[in-house]
Design brief:
14 helices, TIM Barrel, alpha/beta, about 475 residues, 14 strands, GH, two-stranded parallel ribbon, hydrolase, eight-stranded parallel β-barrel
């Protein structure tokens, strides 16, 4: 394949990678950390929770980033990362979530992480809450169903801004906030079993998170005026399964359910279609005048994850849920799928970038994209590695589409691949579902040395960053 002779990626484009604390740190009971909902989810999203941590939960040790962060950040720097997206574990800072004072040992850990990033010239991009609600808040308050969590989150966010506001410019308030209605325990710390949870409680939890996000945005701008605060949503372009107007209408309704979160974050109010949904369901939410005022604190940019697209139909006879897709929709017969049933659609990334830009007119940041696959560690020229040409092809084709969106006029701040080093999967809690440029020697049964090995994609991504995207090959 010939290389492009120019690149649409602007100077200063933030190339990098992304992880979440619960999937990399380990050390779940060290440094004064309290338990989070992840510590009792040994099987990921779909599996049952346990009362307390059990040895089969790979996240308890994860890849031991807590003790190996300096070496791992050095590997990111070797690839040339301009930015690294990571999350702060809420229960490291406030072990129970409702504590009066923060845990200094937890704060100091992230000081050390930031020290390493600064030493290597890597811009931090920090997620404040990434599926890591303190377990005490889930069990005592039923998570975000309770209005009390707005205050607890506000205290937590203010603590972070006061401690790190001069060191961190880019912040995300909640990870994939629109996943709340699909994964209420993981996303919102809601302890009530999903089958017993009312729609009103779910929508009330959604409202509380949106208010908390808006408050955090205001506080960040007060404490750190140069900070840029973004929301983070799970994106999924949806296509009509047939040309039927009824299928097109089904797409619109699915889009509305997914986009309402971004609409509120960027416009500062609930859209009419959502208010209609509440009316028709007979749901009246507890929304105060102060809440409505708070929502007016809109974000500076929109970040999102992109893994797949879906199709939609109004015909119940054609409805069959796609594997691994928590957001609904039906499989698209024109697309291939990954080993975990996630449909692969690079063009969908260009589509969603244009959709979001046209809809919200806010700078965009692709903060998660990648291919989970079963990698095989082999020896090549005396070096252990993974020949992951499939990952290179996937990322290349998606990045080409990011470049096309930029050429379309979309303002894109940066791109961080998901799981830039192998991590424990959030959806399946497996290590064998690998995303990274760096192979971590740990297996689904917990065995392994935790040694790190550069994959073939490591050098490929380093070249993409070095050339600011000029080394990407044209779409096939």
């Amino acid at each position: 394949m010939p290389h492009t002779t120019h690149t649409p990626f602007p100077d200063g484009f933030l190339w990098g990678g992304a992880t979440a604390a619960n999937q990399v740190e380990g050390a779940y009971a060290e440094g004064g950390k309290g338990l989070s909902v992840q510590d009792v989810m040994p099987r990921g999203i779909a599996g049952p929770r346990t009362e307390r941590p059990t040895p089969d939960n790979l996240k308890l040790e994860a890849i031991d980033f807590y003790h190996r962060y300096a070496d791992d950040i050095a590997l990111f720097a070797e690839m040339g990362f301009k930015t690294y997206r990571f999350s702060i574990a809420w229960s490291r800072i406030f072990p129970n979530g409702d504590d009066a004072e923060p845990n200094e040992e937890g704060l100091a850990f992230y000081d050390r992480v930031l020290d390493e990033l600064e030493r290597h010239g890597i811009e931090p991009l920090v997620t404040i809450s990434h599926y890591e609600t303190p377990l005490h808040l889930a069990e005592t308050y039923d998570g975000w169903v309770s209005r009390d969590l707005i205050g607890f989150y506000e205290r937590y966010a203010r603590t972070l801004f006061e401690r790190y506001g001069s060191r961190v410019r880019y912040w995300l308030t909640f990870n994939e906030i629109n996943s709340l209605v699909h994964a209420p325990f993981m996303s919102g710390g809601i302890d009530t079993p999903q089958e017993e949870l009312s729609e009103k409680s779910l929508y009330q939890a959604m409202h509380h998170e949106l208010v908390a996000s808006a408050r955090a945005t205001r506080i960040a701008h007060e404490i750190a005026p140069d900070a840029r605060i973004g929301c983070m949503v799970l994106s999924m372009p949806i296509y009509p399964l047939t040309p039927s107007p009824d299928d097109a209408l089904a797409v619109m309704e699915s889009d509305h359910a997914n986009l309402v979160y971004g609409d509120v974050h960027t416009r500062g109010r609930y859209p009419g279609y959502f208010l209609r949904t509440l009316r028709e369901k007979g749901i009246e939410l507890d929304i105060t005048d102060e809440d409505l005022q708070d929502l007016g604190n809109t974000v500076d940019f929109v970040s999102f994850s992109y893994y797949m697209s879906a199709a939609e139909t109004a015909d119940p006879a054609k409805r069959a849920a796609g594997d691994g897709n928590i957001m609904g929709g039906v499989p698209n017969p024109t697309l291939e799928s990954s080993e975990w049933g996630w449909q692969i659609d690079p063009v969908g990334l260009r589509i969603v970038l244009n959709q979001f830009w046209d809809r919200w007119q806010k700078p965009l940041f692709v903060v998660e994209n990648g291919l989970g696959a079963k990698d095989e560690l082999v020896e090549v020229d005396g070096r252990k590695t993974v020949v992951d040409d499939y990952r290179i092809a996937y990322l290349n084709d998606h990045l080409v589409q990011v470049g096309e969106a930029i050429a379309d006029g979309v303002e894109v701040l940066g791109y961080t691949t998901w799981g830039c080093i192998d991590i424990v999967s959030a959806s399946t809690a497996q290590l064998s579902k690998r995303y990274g440029f760096v192979y971590v020697d740990r297996n689904d049964d917990g065995s392994g040395t935790l040694e790190r090995y550069r994959k073939k994609s490591f050098d490929w991504y380093a070249e993409v960053i070095r050339t600011n995207g000029a080394s990407l090959t044209a779409a096939r």
